[in-house]
Each structure stands twice: as C-alpha cells, then as structure tokens.
C-alpha cells in the first residue's frame, strides 16, 4: 500500500492484517510525528519510507496487489502547488501502476474521489462525465484513465472514487467536514460552516472505505477489471447545513453555527448503485456514529489537536524548504514535497 501512513491507510492496514494479508507500506511519512518511524511496528507490517516517484521498482516483486493511496490528498492542498500535485498524484501514481503491471502484480487499486464530479445538480454515477474543478480532481481523472486502460487478462486495475471520509483514525484529519465540525462542537461548543451551507457532498466512514477496498481486492476480476466505482451510499449525500445540525444535535450544543469563507462552488451527490448491485457492497456506518466516535475519543483523551491534522496548513509548512531539510534531510535542489 502506498500512502498507507495517512488517514485512511492507518485504519485500512490493520483491517487488511486482521483479514490475514501480508502488507508492506510505502509512504514518505509526511504526516505522522517525526519520531514515528513505522506506524505499524506493533503489527509487524514492513514500512518503507520512500516516494512513489522514486522508489526501487523491485519492491513490487512478488506482490499480489497494490493499493495506491499516496497523494496530496484534497482540493485545497493540491492548489498550494499544482505542479507538485500533478507530479505526485498523476505522474507518481501512473508510475506505480505501470511498474506494478510490468513486475507481475495482478491487481491495482487507485484511490480517486467523488470530487471529480465538481459542480453538478443531478446525482452523478460512474457514467457521468467528470467536471474536475481543481488540479487534485484533474489528476484523479487522469490517473483513473491511465491505469484503467492497462487492463489485461493478467492485470486488473480498479479505480475507487471515495466520497468525503469521516471518522476516527490514529492519523487524524481535522480538515474533513464532519471531523472538523465534530471536533469544534466538542472542544469549542461551536460548528464552523462554510458558506452557504446549501452545497451537497457525499460522505463515507473511513472503515467503510477500508471495506470497499477489501471488497474489490476479493472480487472476481471480471466484475472489477478496468472499472470505476463510487464508494459511499445515497443516504449520506448531505447538504452541509443539515450535517451541521446533525453534529450540533449529537453533541448537544444547541444551534451554535459560525459561518466562514466564500460560497463553495463544489456541490455534488453520488449514486452508489454500481458497487451495491455488482459487488453487494453496502456502507454500515452513519454520521451520528462518526460524531459520537470523535466525541468519545476527545473525552477519553485519545484525540487531541495536532498541526499535522490540518492537511492544508501542514503542507504549507512543509513547502518551506528549511523545514523539509530539517525534517527529512533533503538538499535544496531536490524535489522535496
Ligand atoms: N480522506 C478523504 O476524504 C478522501 C476522499 C476521496 C479520496 N481520497 C484519497 O484517498 C487517498 C488517501 O487519503 P487520506 O485521507 O488518507 O490522505 P492523507 O493525506 O492522510 O494520506 C496520504 C499519504 O500519502 C503520503 N504521500 C504523499 N505524497 C507521497 C509521495 N510522493 N510518496 C509517498 N507517499 C506520499 C503522505 O505521507 C500520507 O501519509 C488519497 O489519494 C486521497 O486523495 C481521500
């Protein structure tokens, strides 16, 4: 798994190990505390601190599948440095996919996003023409295309468009809507909401994302090879204002909404019929559970705020070359992020 030290990977790797898989993680480890050299040491998972753009291809020998999660992982992070975003999210992952095929890996799963639908009034399914509004979304469209055309009898590429994730992970993301709202509600008795609240987003719990990946890894290849699947469920296509009300209700803070930002242009809803009917996949976790889970982790002291939990601000800091050199020892002229 590439990018396995991130928010989704930190939940997915233990699930794969639990199912008996032998997992190797390759990640630059940008987002964990500097002293955490292997976030999966307790699970005996091999951890390679390297870059998807430069790693030794031999690492892919004798692997059955690659789950390619590595990326600058959201729209605003991607806009910080569009060239690097393209270099990692498209060129880097395209390299992983081509090398995987060349070295005999049978299955390749790439993480894309329902944000490829951009702004759209009607519900989007996998046949809807993408409307990418950011470099991040454009890179997702490009890597989907590049990987899926490599489909062959001996090589099964699959693209998963995850809805916006929520829920607890040991490498937390407090830049994700539900996580941020729940955190602010519990800590500061306030929910911050991006104007004008009327925008729709599909959501999915991070454990349900893990189950979707496990589902496609185990599916008959004829059902998944060369295919794109939206990952989520229709009942979690929500308007942000309704989401805010759910969070204030579950956390019992009354109607304390604080507005911010300019009206967000991205509004979209997903159809999840394909993954449901073709693979029998269904999500299991609702918003209320995710909010209660975060509240519980804060209340019992497991979840505290950390700079790296705010992806955009943290990547902004990492872009400061001096900090990168201090942290990773790269030379000034290296392509550091
Ligand atoms: N979390 C969501 O809501 C969501 C929704 C849709 C799609 N996705 C996609 O799922 C994937 C994982 O998302 P996440 O939320 O876990 O993000 P994350 O930012 O927490 O994790 C990404 C990981 O990739 C690693 N990484 C970045 N560049 C790298 C490089 N060049 N080489 C090696 N490792 C590198 C980072 O160190 C980090 O551990 C991403 O591709 C993201 O775009 C996430």
Can you offer a commentary on this structure?
By secondary structure, the chain is of the alpha/beta class. It has a domain at 9-171 and 203-234 and 269-284 and 313-328: NAD(P)-binding Rossmann-like Domain (Rossmann fold). The chain has twelve helices and 13 strands. It has helices spanning 9-18, 75-80, 82-102, 135-148, 177-188, 206-218, 221-224, 240-251, 273-279, 287-299, 311-318, 321-328; strands spanning 24-27, 46-49, 65-68, 107-113, 119-124, 156-162, 164-166, 191-194, 200-205, 227-231, 237-239, 257-260, 267-270. The strands form five sheets. A four-stranded parallel sheet has the order 3-4-6-10, with helices on both faces. Bound molecules: nicotinamide-adenine-dinucleotide (NAD). Nicotinamide-adenine-dinucleotide (NAD) binds at residues 2-3, 5-9, 27-31, 51-53, 69-71, 73, 88, 92, 111, 113, 162, 164-165, 171, 173, 176, 311.
Quickly list its features:
337 residues, Rossmann fold, disordered C terminus, four-stranded parallel sheet, 12 helices, alpha/beta, globular
């Amino acid at each position: 798994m590439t990018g396995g030290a991130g928010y989704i990977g930190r939940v997915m790797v233990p699930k794969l190990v639990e199912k008996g898989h032998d997992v190797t993680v390759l990640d630059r480890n940008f987002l964990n505390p500097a002293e955490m050299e292997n976030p999966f040491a307790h699970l005996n998972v091999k951890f390679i601190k390297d870059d998807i753009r430069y790693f030794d291809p031999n690492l892919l020998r004798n692997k059955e599948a690659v789950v390619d999660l590595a990326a600058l992982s959201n729209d605003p992070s991607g806009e910080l440095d569009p060239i690097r975003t393209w270099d990692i999210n498209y060129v880097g992952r395209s390299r992983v996919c081509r090398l995987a095929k060349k070295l005999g890996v049978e299955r390749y799963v790439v993480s894309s996003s329902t944000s490829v639908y951009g702004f759209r009034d009607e519900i989007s399914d996998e046949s809807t023409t993408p409307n990418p509004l950011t470099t991040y979304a454009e890179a997702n469209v490009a890597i989907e295309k590049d990987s899926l055309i490599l489909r062959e009898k001996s090589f099964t590429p699959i693209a998963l468009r995850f809805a916006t994730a929520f829920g607890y992970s040991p490498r937390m993301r407090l830049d994700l809507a539900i996580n941020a709202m729940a955190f602010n509600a519990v800590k500061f008795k306030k929910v911050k909401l991006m104007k004008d609240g009327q925008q729709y987003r599909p959501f999915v719990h991070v454990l349900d994302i893990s189950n979707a990946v496990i589902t496609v890894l185990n599916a008959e290849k004829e059902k998944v090879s060369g295919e794109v699947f939206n990952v989520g469920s229709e009942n979690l296509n929500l308007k942000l204002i309704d989401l805010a009300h759910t969070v204030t209700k579950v956390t019992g803070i009354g109607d304390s909404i604080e507005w911010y930002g300019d009206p967000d242009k991205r509004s979209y809803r997903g159809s999840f019929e394909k993954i449901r009917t073709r693979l029998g996949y269904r999500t299991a976790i609702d918003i209320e559970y995710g909010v209660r889970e975060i509240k519980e982790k804060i209340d019992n002291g497991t979840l505290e705020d950390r700079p790296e939990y705010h992806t955009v601000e943290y990547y902004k800091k990492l872009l400061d070359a001096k900090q990168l050199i201090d942290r990773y020892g790269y030379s000034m002229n290296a392509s550091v992020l």
